[in-house]
Structure formats: structure tokens, C-alpha cells
């Protein structure tokens, strides 16, 4: 048996590239060889964002991660926040080019040819290419196992009339996907954007990813224990929280916020971040800014630049902001792990969810789209480590709501205690004999 050589292929957004990069680092530490395939566009973008000190460090570090790239088929000026465009362009172009890349990589190291493909969702075509070349494959699912279970169950949900063929719930109701799983509302299914073309894509992609022998999930047994019975393919390997240099950041990280956090007492700072995709309108932005002013606590707020790096938002005239620090992009895991952070105002993307849980930080949930509503239900109703921010009759989360909920959250001793307990249970998965550690070892042995 040789060393497993993995070809890692993420869909080109941070929510997929980051966890696959972390898994790659972990596999590399276990002696595996990794070839990481980014689109040209993303490779250029993430490479520009490695800080000078990290670049120097990278040179000294022996790494078994080798990078290769392929074009996504779009023009440089095309809008890559249009996911339909990106998904279909990739599906049209990359499958034809992948065999050549594999051949070239294998020619460079004939002793250790690519033995397994790890693709994230939307990149299931890579598993098909692998099957044709006799290379085995797995899916890395980057959202919760419960979201995966929802997608896996689409055919049954259509069959039993819970949703129609376009993914719309036939009525709002509480259902259980399988016995022992928490009740979930049919309006919270992760494909809630209700786009027929994207829904059909999900259905097709779910049948393609059946080619993956395992569906690796960045989750843990304690967080979603009842979900694993949905399919024997689901394997928890999380939380993926490697401390390696972040060589996959889409924006330059502003690390001055860590020094700023150092100057604040323990559990005093409200951390506000909505991941890499969520966009709010200017009215909502104003309410958030003024809400943070109203709260009697310092805040660290990530106001992400748009993809073309032009600032989108205008701060309202009344905004004071002197209690806070605003940065464009920060080292989120280090921020969440900082003792000064008291709570996390989050859009509940899965990576943010698992990072917050790992750090034992209570949540103020502000879901925007997709799987974030399912995640919010787990945070507030299942694990009970957060509260939800509600919207008023105009569809806005008001400044008063923000102030009230921050105070409610920080005054809730039960939530603080449960967050720390959940942290411990979650970390137990990655100790030597922990559930996720064992799963990872078994997976590597399978890949040999
Ligand atoms: O200043 C920041 C802000 C965020 N992050 C990182 O960016 C990632 C954000 O990921 P996530 O919280 O999952 O949010 P999205 O970027 O919105 O992720 C998309 O992909 C996820 C995984 O599939 C889904 O759960 C989300 O709903 C979807 O929007 C996390 O690792 C954060 O640590 C930083 O490094 N610095």
C-alpha cells in the first residue's frame, strides 16, 4: 500500500475552499499527498492575499500540498457572484480538461499517482471523471449533515407530497426527516431560494455525488447524532479547525483587530460577521450600525468589501461607532477564540456555526439564505446556544431589536453554560480516540 494521493477540488467560494483546504492540511499531516485544484481566478485571488510574513513562512515549511489550476470558463470581468453562471460554466468546461491535469500530475510522480478525488458540492462532475479513469472519489459536504440529509431525501419529499417538483413546500409544517431527528419546518429547507434551475441542479448533483464512496461532513457526532442514520455514506470528520497558515483567504485579513481585542476585558466584545456571500440593503445596514451604537458594549464588525473590492455601504450620519472596530476581513477563527469575544452576531453559515461552537461562543442568529435557517434552528432550538434576531413588519431587524437581543443573550446564564458544554463535547471528537479522529483514520486507510 502506497501513500494516498488526494486530488482536492472545491467549488470556488470561501465556504468550500476553506474547509477543503483545512481537510487537506489534516490529511497532509497524516502523511498523505495532496494536489489542490483551484480555478485560475481563485488561485490568483487567494495567492495575492497571503500576507508577506506568511509567504516567508510558507517557503520554510515543507508542505505536501501541490497546487494546480484550471480555467472556470468565464471571462475575467464576469460576475462570479452569479452562481448559476459559475456552476454551469464550470460544468461545461472543467470536466473536459481534468483528465489532462490528472495525467500531468501522475507523470510527475509515477510512484504516487492520484488515488482519490475529494470534491465539494457542485463539483460532482469530478467524481464522474474519476470513475471513468478508475480513480475512487468522495464528497466533502461543507454544510451540516442535516442539510445533506434534506437534499438526500428530496425524492421522498416529492413522493410523499411534502414538496412539489420545484422544491416548494406544499404547506408550512413541522416534519421529521427520520426518527429521532429534531422537528424541522418545511419552509426552512436549504434550497429555499426557490429557483427551479438551481433546484434541478441540486437534484441532479445529489445523484452524481452517489458516486462518492463517502460523504465526509465537517460536523461531529454529538452535534447531529440522529442524522447519521440517514445514509451509511455520511462520515463526520469535523470540526475542521486547522491552525495552519491561511493560504486560501479571498480577502486580505486585517489582523490589527486581534491587537484591538487584546485591549478589551474578557467576554466584552460583540463580534459581527456575515460570511462571504450575504448582502444586506442599505436600510438594514443603517439599522445594524445604529443598533451597535445603542448596545453598551464594544463591537468588532466585519464589513466585507464587494467582490471587486469597492466599498458598498455608506455609514448613516448618526452613526458614532467609537466603541467599535470595523475591518474588511479578519482571521475569524482567531477572533472567535479570543477571550474578549462575548457573542457572535452571525448569518449562521455552516463554517461560522461550527467555528462558533468550537470556540464556545453564544450566537445571535441572523440567517439570510439557503441552509442558514436550518443551522439557526439547531443553534436556537436544538443546542440552545443562541437567540434569533427577528424582523419587524417592514422586514427589517431594528436597532432596538439588536440592543434587546444582545442584552437578552448576554444575560442568559443557561446559554453561556450550554455553549461551553457544547464546546467540550465537540472538541472531544478530535482528541486521539475521538469519533471524528477515528473516522478520519478509517477514511485514510480506505483511500490507501
Ligand atoms: O472576516 C472573516 C469572515 C469570515 N471568514 C471565514 O469565512 C468562512 C465563511 O463561511 P460560512 O460561515 O459557511 O459562510 P458563507 O461564506 O456564507 O458560506 C456559504 O457556504 C457554507 C458552506 O457550504 C454555507 O453553510 C453558507 O450558507 C453559504 O453562504 C468561515 O470559515 C469564516 O471563518 C473569515 O475568515 N474572515
Automatic annotation (TrEMBL):
Residue ranges annotated as transmembrane are none
- Pfam families noted in UniProt: UDPGT
Q: Which UniProt keywords apply?
A: Transferase
Q: Which CDD domains match?
A: GT1_Gtf-like
Which molecular function term from Gene Ontology is one that the record holds? quercetin 7-O-glucosyltransferase activity
Which top-level group of life is the source organism from? Eukaryota
Q: Does the keyword Signal apply?
A: no
SUPFAM superfamilies linked to this entry: UDP-Glycosyltransferase/glycogen phosphorylase (SSF53756)
InterPro entries per UniProt: UDP_glucos_trans
* Family (UniProt): Belongs to the UDP-glycosyltransferase family.
Name the UniProt record assigns to this protein: UDP-glycosyltransferase 83A1
UniProt organism field: Pisum sativum
